[in-house]
Design a protein that fits this description.
single chain; 199 residues; Arc Repressor Mutant, subunit A; Tetracycline Repressor, domain 2; 2 domains
Length: 199
């Protein structure tokens, strides 16, 4: 008889990174069920974790959603920054990246700006990520706009692009194949306003 100790089979919840498994599960459920229909229990079961596992990382559903929001703003910031480095008009490329981000993950995009589900004032890391995403746009505008107009034109650029992205998701105003054309138009509008003489 062998003296070696029998190894007890590991439960499904013993993941190398339970937090990442839970977040990946929640992302999938978010797109299929929507934020309102997503629950910690569903995300836990889909990830194959124990019932207690989520509470080792998140106090409640809002905290889980806040982490999804933080990560989404980081992704958006990276996408905008990378697009702005391409040859051509950096603002048009950034606008296209923003719109495409919304089209690829519409439920996540809605969640990022839904204060009913996630109060960013309670989650400073998510709030900071949102600021960085906006600053990535402001940095592009600062490359061609007068310093005293950067803040206003950055807000205008964000409003136009965000509004269009939202209309495409919620109202299906246009097909995706017009993304590049619209992005160039929005960039031209902001650049024209930046070049306009102030009375």
């Amino acid at each position: 008889m062998s003296n070696s100790k029998k190894v007890k089979p590991r439960g499904r919840y013993h993941h190398g990174n339970a937090k990442e498994a839970l977040l990946a599960s929640a992302r999938g459920l978010l797109e299929s069920e929507g934020a309102a229909g997503l629950s910690l229990r569903q995300a836990t079961e889909r990830a194959g974790l124990s019932r207690q596992a989520p509470y080792n990382h998140f106090a409640d559903k809002e905290a889980l959603l806040a982490e999804l929001v933080r990560d989404a703003f980081e992704q958006l910031c990276n996408a905008v920054t990378a697009a702005s480095g391409r040859a051509g008009d950096p603002l048009a490329h950034a606008a296209a990246a923003y719109i495409q981000f919304a089209q690829i993950s519409p439920a996540l995009f809605r969640l990022m700006f839904s204060r009913e589900l996630v109060d960013l004032s309670k989650f400073p890391e998510a709030k900071a990520a949102a600021r960085r995403a906006f600053h990535s746009l402001s940095a592009i505008v600062a490359g061609f706009a007068p310093p005293d107009r950067v803040a206003d034109l950055s807000l205008a650029a964000w409003s136009v692009v965000h509004g269009y992205a939202t209309l495409c998701i919620e109202a299906k105003v246009e097909s995706h194949d017009r993304l590049a054309e619209r992005s160039r138009l929005f960039a031209q509008l902001i650049r024209s306003e930046a070049a306009a003489r102030r009375e």
